[in-house]
Structure formats: C-alpha cells, structure tokens
Amino acid sequence: MNIVEKTENGVKFLILSGHLDGQTAGEVEASLMVHLDSADKLILDFSDVAFVSSAGLRVVLIGAKKMAARKAQYGLCGLKPEVMAVFKMSGFAKIMQIFDDQAASLAGMQC
Question: Which of 87, 97, 104, 98 has its CA nearest to residue 9?
Fold first, then answer.
C-alpha cells in the first residue's frame, strides 16, 4: 500500500494505491490516525485501490466515527466500480460521503 498526502483548499487528501486488506489496513489506519484529531476536512482517495476487504472497511469506519464525533467533514473519492460494489453491499455507501474524484470532493467539502 502506498499512501500520499496532500492538502488543497483546506481539504486533506490521503491518496491510497494498492489493496486495502488485512495486510495493509494497519498502515492505512496509522496514517489516518495522524490526521483524525487535526483535519477539519479529510478525504480518502481510492482512485488507485483495486480491492477492499472487511479489514479495510473497518479502517474507513474508524475514520468516519472519529471525524463525526468532532463534527468534521470526511469522505471518500475515486472508487472503482468493484470497490464501490463492496461499499454498497456493506451499507457504507449510505452512511458516507462519496465523491467521483478529488475535484468533486473539493466542491462538496466547501459547502
């Protein structure tokens, strides 16, 4: 798993690439934890993620809960159809902000 961080217009992006599964979830969680107490707007970019397991969903949910407790904005973008299918089947697509891409995330987070 490769994780690149960037900030644009006050939105922190964690750009993920690879598989988000039991072997990589800890690495993503550690990177996410660094920003959960400080970022007011945080997006996980899944554009280069080909697979998400239940361990990956757990990490995404941890982020959502911590950001919601702070009333901060949190979302996902760039989900490939096969990854989006996992989020839909798990019900996560109904409880998370999901954007098409980074540009849509920026527009949606400025509200």
Answer: 104
Give the CATH number, domain containing residue 70: 3.30.750.24
The residue among 15, 41, 37 whose CA lies nearest residue 107 is 41
Tell me how far CA of residue 54 lies from CA of 41, 50, 62, 66, 86, in angstroms: 24, 14, 12, 18, 9
Q: Convert 85-101 into a string of H (helix), E (strand) and C (coil).
A: HHHHHHCHHHHCEEECC
> Residue written as tokens 């919601």?
68
pLDDT tens digits, residue range 83-101?
A: 999 999 999 999 999 999 9
For residues 74 and 67, is the Cβ–Cβ distance under 8 A?
A: yes
